[in-house]
Amino acid sequence: MTSTSRPAHIRKAVIPAAGLGTRFLPATKAIPKEMLPVVDKPAIQYVVEEAVRAGLTDVLTITGRNKASLEDHFDRHWELEQALEKKGDELRLRRVHKSANLGEVHFVRQGEPRGLGHAVLCARSHVGNEPFAVLLGDDLIDEQEHLLERMIAAQQAHGGSVIALMEVPEDQIHLYGCAAVSPVEGEDEDIVRVTDLVEKPAVGEAPSNLAIIGRYVLDPSLFDILDHTKPGRGNEIQLTDALKEAIGSPESGGVTGVVFRGRRYDTGDRLDYLKAMVRLGVRHRELGADFRGWLLEWARTDEALGRTNDAHLDEETH
């Protein structure tokens, strides 16, 4: 499988969702981390909505064991719909219908947890020989941003694969995959040519402060590379390792980066998850004004300022 000379229209998205969500235990013991609510929608619905807004209505979700609730969420719930109809609750009925009518949402199991690269490889038979997007559920991109659309445009203009990059503080770059980049002639500074990738570099050894975040538009030739990519960090098949090989592969068309400077919510980290709840909560169409008012008032209280006695909290639990 090789990169085509004429860019193909991108219509498919892949969402890896087979992880165990161990950072959120015990909440994720019986509930997939992708189903944890962010205000009033599960995290994965934000991701599917983002794909659909960008024109990617064919969505494949890579799941694992105990993820049946993902399929249930994007399916029709006739009993619930009938109950809402009888009550005349049109608002909630529309919300329930929306999750079931976002697009064509398909599911396939990864089988065993062998890393992000292997999860993407599981999409091969569904994707076929055409470029496709990969969206990680831990990264929520604000609905007012157009990152995925920009990445699709970059792939159509330059071919190959495209990754999303974001500037992070130097003392945090070791938490991410990191890109070395060079300018692309004729493009603005946010479109760059990726010349190297380093997975979680040591502090002081990173080639830049540009971290890879969870959005990719991939050339189908990546499947052939992933097929022979050996397990890397964590004894898992790393997508970063395959992209690193693609950088120097004429058949794969190289790798372009799109530097994102907008709003991103990291729901894979407990603290950032709470921040995302607040930031999206104050902008909620129905709840935002009241929540913002309460938040501003509460922020001036002794409780908010840490002046109350919280000794009763179980430190091991909390």
Please characterize this protein's 3D structure.
The protein has 318 residues and is of the alpha/beta class. The protein has a single domain, classed as Spore Coat Polysaccharide Biosynthesis Protein SpsA, Chain A. Helix content is 31%, strand content 21%. The protein has helices spanning 43-53, 68-73, 78-87, 90-100, 116-121, 124-127, 147-158, 221-228, 239-247, 270-281, 288-298, and strands at 12-16, 37-38, 41-42, 58-63, 104-109, 132-135, 139-141, 161-167, 177-183, 191-199, 210-218, 255-259, 264-266. A 9-stranded mixed β-sheet has the order 5-4-1-6-11-8-12-10-9. It has a two-stranded antiparallel sheet with strand order 2-3. The chain is globular. The N and C termini lie far apart (50 Å). The relative contact order is 0.15.
